[in-house]
Design a protein that fits this description.
The chain is of the alpha/beta class and about 130 residues long. The protein has one domain: Rossmann fold (3-Layer(aba) Sandwich), CATH 3.40.50. The chain is about 45% helix and about 10% strand. It has five helices and four strands; from the N terminus they run αβαβαβαβα. The protein has a two-stranded parallel ribbon. It has a two-stranded parallel sheet with strand order 3-4. α2 links the parallel β1 and β2. α1 runs parallel beside α2. The protein is globular.
Length: about 130
């Protein structure tokens, strides 16, 4: 969220809600570069999770697609602690399944941790251009 000067620091949950809605819309268009998106929210930004799940129950962590449906296009992760640690945990899971993983971050240390697990990493400008 920090890549946008839209006042996100004053209301992190509202900023997370805006960004998540945009990524969800991108995922549903089906013309994006990813088959599935995972949005990791930490701190006050986590307050957006129940609002998003209320808008669309398919985003809930315990929701499972019906028989014959593909994987859900967007999954929300509410990081109980460090968002970076949650992201690295997700990357490790994805890579362990021998799937490709692309992380969007401007954080150098997170970039390094993800690349060490063989994930690709791009900056937030890449995502903002898609949105």
């Amino acid at each position: 969220m920090g890549a946008r000067a839209d006042g996100w620091w004053r209301d992190r949950a509202a900023a997370a809600l805006r960004l998540c809605r945009e990524v969800i819309a991108l995922a549903r268009r089906g013309d994006g570069p990813a088959g599935a998106w995972m949005l990791v929210l930490e701190g006050r930004a986590r307050d957006a999770v129940p609002l998003l799940e209320e808008e669309d129950p398919s985003l809930a962590a315990d929701w499972a697609p019906a028989e014959g449906e593909g994987p859900r296009p967007v999954r929300l992760v509410s990081a109980p602690g460090s968002g970076d640690d949650a992201i690295v945990g997700v990357v490790a899971e994805v890579v362990a399944r021998d799937e490709s993983c692309l992380v969007v971050t401007a954080d150098r240390r997170l970039r390094q941790r993800c690349e060490e697990l063989n994930a690709s990493v791009v900056g937030p400008g890449w995502l903002l251009r898609l949105l």
